[in-house]
Amino acid sequence: MPTPGPVRGWRRTLSLRSAGVVYALIGLVAVLTITSSLQGRPPYLASVNLSNILDQAALIAIMAVFMTLVLITGNFDLSVASTAALSGTVALELVDRYGVAAAAAGALGTGLVVGVVNAVLVQKVGVNAFIVTLGTLTAVRGVVQVILDGQSIAAVNPALHDFATARFALPVPVAIILGLVLVGLPVFAVLRSPARRRAVSAAAGPVVAGVLLVFVAVAQPKLLSQTTPVWLLLVLTVAAGAVLRYTVIGRNLYAVGGNAEAARLSGIDVDRYKMGAFVLNGLVAGLAGLLYAGRFNSVDPTVLTGGELTVIAAAVLGGTSLLGGSGYVAKSVAGALILFTLSNGFNVLNIGSNYQNVVQGGVLVAAAALYTATSSRGRAFLKARFTKASAEQPDAAKENAVSGSR
Fold this sequence. Notes:
The protein has helices spanning 5-13, 16-38, 47-72, 80-98, 100-125, 129-148, 159-165, 172-192, 196-219, 228-246, 248-258, 260-265, 270-296, 307-317, 329-348, 353-374, 376-405; strands spanning 153-154, 167-169, 225-227, 298-299. It is mostly helical. The protein has a domain at 9-166 and 252-351: ABC transporter involved in vitamin B12 uptake, BtuC (Orthogonal Bundle). Helix 3 (47-72) runs parallel beside helix 10, helix 4 packs parallel to helix 6 and helix 5 packs antiparallel against helix 13 (270-296). The mean pLDDT is 84.
């Protein structure tokens, strides 16, 4: 008897392939919680510690959201961290002389310019994205070093620091009502929709978010007070996820990354979408640099060095394909949370940084292998390999028998 459509939709949504990164995050938090308790340390799930993880992960997660858009289109950008570093440097150079508005405009404009340069060189000139963004990574980092001349700088004006570290609280009643709305509306839409399976798949994200919001409001109300980067991360993730899921622009982005030639033949302006992803990525890198400079109110020549690898790792942990055409921004955020939860857990348990790198690298490789093995392409590849191996074994046995008889 075939499984009903809604049940199949929920099974697919909750499968290892679809929600594996969420299960991994929950399992990691559970292990760290139990380990901390057994060692007599403060509760790992304390609101202060969880808020600290969110605040630490916010900037990388913001860049991971828009890196996911670039990866979906079939490209990638190695220059995001250097772009953020240059944007933060420009912001601190301007804030004392011309004020906060000029500093913010300078940071965002810097990111926009780098994004446009990457977009034009990749899509219009035709240079490989790896070469272009590796070149801009090096060049932009060099500009940072030239501006700073090997020295760190700090701002006297505290306005950026106040903005980047400000805390905003969502009232508990508002959070509960919003959570119930997020659960109720999708459920109502599923019940009214003739295409139940598709409706269930679309409703899964809002329902899970609503349940989580109600749970936090009841069990951990202090978590409703977060810093500016965390709230910006939430807003940008919801906005990007909604565009990808419910708009023509999102569907076209997936089409461009999945098969650019087929998308072009169907009338989609492939260059526009690929260039737009680069430009948005640069703009958001500028925002991340502005927030980073504001958080510490200073920058140095090594700021965010290697951050681009963490951003890409977060997207890959979230299941975004490096081949294009596949990816979800919320899962990329979960990937960033896994990386920073690991780092935080190691610090809480006093585990050395060398072991941190080994474990984080192992987690990334394991996640990539798991996604490959559970994807339809990966299953087809493994099936073909096993079929070929099983077909070769009888032939080898026959050859051995013939040679033995001789």
